[in-house]
Write a structure and sequence with these properties.
Number of strands: 19
CATH architecture of one domain: 3-Layer(aba) Sandwich
Distance between the termini: 52 Å
CATH topology of one domain: Rossmann fold
Strand order of the largest sheet: 2-1-3-4-5-6
Shape: globular
CATH superfamily of one domain: Cobalamin-binding domain
Largest sheet: 6 strands, mixed
Structural class: alpha/beta
Strand content: 5-15%
Radius of gyration: 24 Å
Helix content: 25-40%
Length: 615
């Protein structure tokens, strides 16, 4: 198949190099009958997937095992898909070009709800039966994990097993269970019953959901086999400093979205922003030491030749030794012209010292996320920053030569008014004013301030999980109002499609009745729904009608605190009482302090008895 694809297909598609898989540090093994073949499937393009840190970690981890060969597969772009269908060829793993249906496992990472349609498309292209209940005995087990797996129900009809939480340890337990199952014999059900007993593994076929015929609400969710637990506890790595991290990563021959080394310095976040799912589900905070970070980054640079390192975390500025780390790294790599970037700095965690250090090699634009335009709304969402924090930061940046500032906001937040929308424009103008307060000889010669808004999407396991989303028309009205409120030409405004955010909310808060909608949307050709050139909202709305499912029921409806939510069977360690209390505090704009300053008793400290959080 390899030669046929190279000669007859790749000359006809864009970016053919992304379908070959012979990059630097790609893993190739000699397969044997005993070897477990694992296809790590990223349901988006190669350029997006190759930027994903989780894939790099699990790819390296699985390939460390002598009897496991982990390969990569990405969603083919529309021109490659067309060629595969025309030539009746299956989707394949990059390293060996083995057809997808010949693997033991196909593992999807769920980073974004709008990739769900790509999952069905990839299964079809890989000649794998889409519905798990209909799969033959010799078909691969389809596994999924990632942040969207914290509400696995919309994909329950298609996935054999989910990993809830951090997968580094659980995935090896699943592989060990597969070895035992192959040695002792049995059918697919036997294997699934075996792995259902592994903590953190959810097998949706082993659970029954009952609904009220009148209201459509869930009345019961319960296991139907003895091997399946009633509650699935999320998994997390306790000692991140000694957790597995690859010393070399695959280096692409083409540019990717984040074409650099991304190194994780800590996990978790104690800030408690009420809209942020990641900040809740990745608790507790766990750090790596400065020497560990320096040693691992050196190994990665030596193995790849990259000239930029991004320090990855949910809030990099909250790392307890961030200033010492930056100084050490800048000192290590200034001569080699390796730059250090900080992608997730909080406004109040920036300092003059850090700004001076990270500009030594290469100055880039400054990106900050106030999230809301007024202090009242920042208190509602518990952002924990002030206008003074923002203006102090941009003033320092302008003094040090920055001229490009991008500010991220959300619109449609619970309790928002038009005055809060106008506050976004006002804040942008105040940033411009700070620039002109700097002496002409000291400041950058040009100024560009970009205001970017996304539409609020209520997410599971956040205090706002019960809150309904704005309608699409309400979002559009707010976007128009903000645009009209901007008066200065040095300020530009960009926004996200409210139709995409609507669908994201549907699937974020959905249940397994959405499976039929996904099927019908796939049949209509929906895929790459996160890409503007491919997204077609009307096809989705038609799919909802044909499936007899009301999308507003999931996205727009406020939910009662007593309602059984589709994801209530998952225990993240954060109690539902804590989330409810945070939602109630949001109504009166009461804030909750930063975790290291004051413990708010969210529940995570009791989740694993005897283990102490360091953040």
């Amino acid at each position: 198949m390899n030669n046929y694809i190279e000669k007859n297909i790749l000359p006809l598609v864009t970016k053919p190099i992304t379908y070959l898989g012979n990059e630097v540090n790609a893993v190739h093994k000699n397969p044997s009958p005993e070897m477990i073949r694992f296809a790590f499937a990223f349901p988006d393009t190669y350029e997006v997937g190759m930027s994903h840190l989780g894939m790099k970690i699990l790819y390296g981890l699985l390939n460390e095992e002598k009897d496991i060969w982990c390969e990569r597969v990405f969603a083919p772009w529309v021109d490659m898909e067309e060629q595969l269908r025309q030539h009746n060829l299956p989707l394949y793993g990059l390293e060996s070009m083995l057809p997808l249906n010949d693997y033991d496992f196909v593992g999807f990472t769920l980073q974004y709800e709008m990739s769900f349609s790509n999952i069905l498309n990839m299964l079809e292209l890989g000649k794998i039966t889409q519905r798990s209940a209909l799969r033959e005995e010799d078909e691969p087990f389809v596994i999924a994990g990632g942040p969207c797996a914290y509400n696995p129900e919309p994909l329950a009809d298609f996935i054999d097993l989910f990993v809830i939480g951090e997968a580094e340890e659980v995935i090896l337990k699943i592989m060990a269970a597969h070895r035992e199952w192959k040695n002792t014999g049995g059918n697919r059900q036997d294997f699934l019953k075996r792995v259902a007993q592994i903590e953190g593994v959810y097998v949706p076929a082993f659970y029954q959901v009952n609904y009220d015929e009148q209201t459509g609400l869930i009345t019961a969710f319960e296991p139907i086999v003895k091997e399946a637990p009633s509650i699935i506890r999320k998994q997390f790595i306790e000692d991140l400093n000694n957790a597995y991290f690859p010393e070399k990563i695959v280096v692409s021959y083409t540019e990717t979205v984040h074409d650099r080394i991304s190194y994780e310095i800590f996990r978790g976040c104690g800030r408690g922003c009420r809209f942020c799912q990641a900040g809740m589900i990745y608790r507790p905070t766990r750090e790596k030491t400065v020497p560990t970070i320096q040693a691992k980054i050196k190994a990665l640079i030596d193995a790849t030749g990259y000239d930029e390192v991004s320090l990855s975390s949910l809030s990099t500025g909250d790392y307890s030794e961030i200033e010492a780390l930056i100084k050490n790294l800048v000192c290590d790599y200034t001569d080699g012209k390796v730059s250090i970037s900080l992608p997730s700095l909080r406004i109040d965690s920036l300092s003059i010292e850090m700004l001076e250090e990270i500009q030594k090699v290469r100055k880039t634009g400054l990106t900050l996320a106030p999230e809301a335009g007024t202090q009242r709304m920042r208190d509602v969402i518990n952002k924990g920053v002030t206008e003074e924090n923002l203006l102090d930061t941009v003033r320092t940046a302008f003094e040090k030569g920055w001229g490009h500032v991008k500010l991220y906001f959300m619109i449609g937040l619970p309790g928002e008014t038009l005055a809060d929308i106008e506050g976004i424009a006002d804040l942008g103008q105040k940033v411009v004013d700070e620039y002109f307060k700097i002496d002409r000889e000291e400041r950058n010669k040009s100024l560009k301030v970009v205001l970017s808004t996304s539409s609020f999407v209520p997410k599971p396991f956040t205090p706002f999980q019960w809150m309904g989303q704005n309608t699409q028309e309400e979002f559009k009205q707010k976007q128009r109002h903000l645009k009209a409120s901007i008066k200065d030409r040095k300020i530009s405004y960009s926004w996200h499609d409210s139709g995409v955010s609507f669908l994201e909310a549907v699937f974020a808060r959905g249940d397994r009745r959405l499976g039929s909608v996904l099927e019908k949307a796939h049949q209509k050709g929906c895929r790459f729904d996160g890409w503007g050139e491919c997204f077609d909202l009307q096809k989705w709305m038609d799919a909802f009608v044909e499936a007899g499912v009301d999308p507003d029921f999931y996205a727009l409806r406020n939910r009662d605190y007593s309602e059984i939510l589709p994801w209530d069977f998952i225990d993240t360690g954060i109690t539902k009482d804590f989330l409810q209390s945070e939602a109630e505090k949001a109504e009166t704009a009461l804030t909750t302090p930063f975790c290291p300053d004051t413990c708010s008793n969210c529940g995570i400290m009791e989740f694993k008895k005897g283990w102490k959080c360091n953040g």
